[in-house]
Amino acid sequence: MKLGFLGTGVIAGAFIEGLEHAGGHHDIVVSPRSEAISRDLEARFARVRRAGSNAEVIEASEVVVLAMRPAQVEDALAGLAFRPGQALVSFVTGLDIPELQALAPGLPVARALPLPAVARCSGPLVATPETPLMRELLSGLGEVIFAADDTEMMAMGGVSALMATYFELQQTLIGWSEAEGVERAKASRYTRAMLLSLAETGMATPEARLGDLVGEHQTKGGLNQRVRTRLLEAGWFDAPGNALAEVRRIGRQGLE
């Protein structure tokens, strides 16, 4: 498959790295922006070539991938045209299937929301619609989940807006341990290993038993129950949903 990436930022770079780790059987051409990432990819991977323009990317590709910020889409495609036989895949948050169809009339279109961990062929990767092309493109890149439509996709993908918050929490826990007198390196190792083990437990637990994990990880009157109760009283568990709901109300034009 000949892939062309319009926009070569962090996510596009991670996706291309994942493709290479998953087998590297695609010919890939990337747009010159960002210069640092596009040059690095070309230097590291034999099947990646850096184009001189967005027009050159489209000309060389069977599948064109939009991988820029939402506000950059119109400028990136200005004066460019797709040709029959191509397909368009978008990584752009908020750019829905009808909008993609308007950008590429008559061509197959699809969406995917890769996360940075795709570079290691890890983590969730939500996409829509499920087609042979998308199954082939995403195969081996992580936990691929096909959404029924744009609405379901954005509801799932919206959870990824908590990634930075997760790492902020991780830093907070490490910092708390350090303030309590634990050596920084030890606090970091312990906290990260604990969070990893909890994530692995969540993935290993059958769906029907996920609700049991709270009770299994606390004892009556114990530290876990006391901390959870305090956070419940403070509305701590309502805050993520409220923040995500607020973000969902921001249209594509409101995103950078």
TrEMBL record:
Superkingdom of origin: Bacteria
Instruction: Please state every residue range assigned to the domain named Pyrroline-5-carboxylate reductase catalytic N-terminal.
Output: 2-92
Q: Which GO terms describe its biological process?
A: L-proline biosynthetic process
The molecular function GO annotations come to: pyrroline-5-carboxylate reductase activity
The text of the family note is:
Belongs to the pyrroline-5-carboxylate reductase family.
Query: What name appears for this protein in its UniProt entry?
Result: Pyrroline-5-carboxylate reductase catalytic N-terminal domain-containing protein
Q: What is the lineage of its organism?
A: Bacteria, Pseudomonadati, Pseudomonadota, Alphaproteobacteria, Hyphomicrobiales
